[in-house]
């Protein structure tokens, strides 16, 4: 499968993606735990059907020590016993923040309250920005039908 667009060859995309990738780097450097970042990025990408991002985040997570059991259970995190309460709160926030149209009310007060029990304001800010960032990345890749499978861990860092 070939992508519909080559973002790396486009002068317009090049200008925009330079800033977008800088935002991604700032998120990686945030106080939000790396494992949480990768789990959230993976879950948002699963919901949005972004194969390129699923490929990237499973490989990046494995490269920093995430287990295959946890990666395989992200899609069913509610029933899985391998996630901390903090990770569960982040995954729930990620789902409601991604499925805004499905929820008709956005993120519920209950979900927000659970997240605030585990993360300070700076971590919550990083988490919300990460969820938004991933939704944007997913849409860029899904619209252009970016192929998956060839990503090497750390390729875009």
UniProtKB/TrEMBL annotation:
<dbReference type="InterPro" id="IPR003779">
    <property type="entry name" value="CMD-like"/>
</dbReference>
<dbReference type="InterPro" id="IPR029032">
    <property type="entry name" value="AhpD-like"/>
</dbReference>
<feature type="domain" description="Carboxymuconolactone decarboxylase-like">
    <location>
        <begin position="16"/>
        <end position="95"/>
    </location>
</feature>
<dbReference type="InterPro" id="IPR004675">
    <property type="entry name" value="AhpD_core"/>
</dbReference>
<dbReference type="Pfam" id="PF02627">
    <property type="entry name" value="CMD"/>
</dbReference>
<protein>
    <submittedName>
        <fullName>Carboxymuconolactone decarboxylase family protein</fullName>
    </submittedName>
</protein>
């Amino acid at each position: 499968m070939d992508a519909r667009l080559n973002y790396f060859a486009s002068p317009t995309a090049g200008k925009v993606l330079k800033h977008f990738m800088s935002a991604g780097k700032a998120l990686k450097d945030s106080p939000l735990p790396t494992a949480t970042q990768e789990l959230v990025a993976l879950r948002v990408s699963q919901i949005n059907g972004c194969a390129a991002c699923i490929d990237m985040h499973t490989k990046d997570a494995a490269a920093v020590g995430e287990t295959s059991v946890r990666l395989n259970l992200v899609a069913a995190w509610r029933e899985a016993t391998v996630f901390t309460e903090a990770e569960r709160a982040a995954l729930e926030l990620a789902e409601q923040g991604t499925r805004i149209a499905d929820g008709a009310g956005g993120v519920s007060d209950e979900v927000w309250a659970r997240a605030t029990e585990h993360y300070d304001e700076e971590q919550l800010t990083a988490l919300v920005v990460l969820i938004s960032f991933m939704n944007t990345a997913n849409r860029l890749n899904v619209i252009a039908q970016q192929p998956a499978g060839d990503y090497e861990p750390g390729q875009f860092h």
